[in-house]
């Protein structure tokens, strides 16, 4: 059941004035006039090129916010998003995250201007480019491009693709848990067209989703896919009218949030192990002997069974897995 904005649970939040109104958390950087205290155990880390908001108190929304650069992600962005998703996984009150983009792009990939500057720096004798070591070497965290293309993590992330989704942007959605796309969105791996390779984790994962021949077509031709074709290939869960992808992603996230947080974590882990190539029996054994045993000791399993017997809505507690 939805709650009115007057509900005390929303006290640490304000309604943003965006195309799709969301609840934005009040941090000291946003206001010095209000002394509202968050329900988070720790504040979210700083992310310079993304907007952080909370459609509900249990859902994190990350909006890539470099619209004039088609939301290309630079080296700093990879590491800041990695810190943000680590915080998300460790924050008990949050259950699901949504990633989208501002403007006409979801994400067009790497920041090629930074890349070109790094190439120029490496070719000069003094190497004084003003770039950080990470930027000069074009490094990424272990979680990959945008901290998502190779992410394992604990909690689900839904990509709401609002437009162009190329290169690293496409690598991110290939490893996302669910993908919702606006009808005008396009997906592609155009790396071969500019003499590079999709090395952030997409190639080996792509073949498991779309099959060998389709993966070859995407990687070798660089041909972009329209949203409906991407759905037919299995890259996208749902295609919605223009401007509705975030709204639809929030609906999916709310369905996830309504379930036991322990069940969501363990179910996701079981699916992920199978997708990553672990044998079916080994993945089942690991899920039973490791995850299920931990889950069985928690309150949510007892609460789920009890609420079913008592014919009432369950009252979940934050997961301790």
Automatic annotation (TrEMBL):
Pfam families with a match to the protein in the record: ECH_1
GO cellular component: mitochondrion; peroxisome
Pathway entry: Siderophore biosynthesis
GO biological process entries: fatty acid beta-oxidation
Cell compartment(s), UniProt: Peroxisome
Keyword Magnesium: no
Claim: Isomerase is one of the keywords in the record: yes
Transmembrane regions: none
Main location: other
Keywords: Isomerase, Lyase, Peroxisome
CDD domains the UniProt entry points to: crotonase-like
Protein name per its UniProtKB record: ClpP/crotonase
Organism field: Hyaloscypha variabilis (strain UAMH 11265 / GT02V1 / F) (Meliniomyces variabilis)
């Amino acid at each position: 059941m939805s709650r009115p904005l007057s509900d005390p649970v929303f006290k640490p939040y304000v309604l943003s004035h965006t195309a799709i109104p969301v609840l934005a958390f009040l941090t000291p950087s946003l206001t010095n006039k209000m002394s509202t205290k968050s329900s988070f155990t720790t504040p979210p880390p700083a992310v310079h090129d993304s907007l952080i908001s909370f459609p509900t108190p249990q859902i994190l929304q990350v909006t890539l916010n470099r619209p004039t650069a088609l939301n290309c992600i630079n080296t700093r962005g990879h590491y800041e998003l990695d810190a943000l998703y680590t915080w998300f996984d460790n924050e008990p009150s949050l259950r699901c995250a949504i990633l989208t983009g501002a403007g006409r792009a979801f994400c067009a990939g790497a920041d090629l201007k930074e890349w070109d500057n790094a190439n120029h720096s490496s070719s000069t004798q003094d190497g004084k480019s003003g770039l950080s070591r990470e930027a000069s070497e074009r490094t990424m965290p272990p979680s990959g491009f945008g901290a998502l293309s190779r992410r394992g993590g604990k909690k689900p992330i839904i990509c709401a693709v609002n437009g162009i989704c190329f290169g690293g942007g496409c690598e991110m959605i290939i490893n996302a848990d669910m993908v919702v796309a606006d009808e005008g969105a396009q997906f592609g791996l155009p790396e071969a067209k500019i003499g590079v390779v999709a090395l952030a984790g997409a190639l080996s994962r792509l073949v498991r989703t779309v099959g060998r021949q389709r993966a070859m077509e995407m990687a070798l031709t660089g041909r972009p896919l329209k949203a409906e074709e991407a759905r037919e290939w299995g890259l996208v869960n749902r295609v919605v009218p223009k401007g509705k992808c975030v709204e639809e992603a929030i609906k999916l996230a709310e369905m996830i949030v309504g379930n036991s947080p322990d069940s969501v974590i363990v179910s996701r882990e079981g699916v992920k192990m199978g997708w990553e190539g672990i044998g079916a029996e080994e993945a089942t054994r690991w899920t039973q002997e490791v995850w299920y045993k931990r889950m069985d000791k928690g309150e949510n399993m007892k609460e789920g069974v009890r609420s079913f017997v008592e014919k009432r809505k369950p009252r979940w507690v934050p997961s301790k897995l």
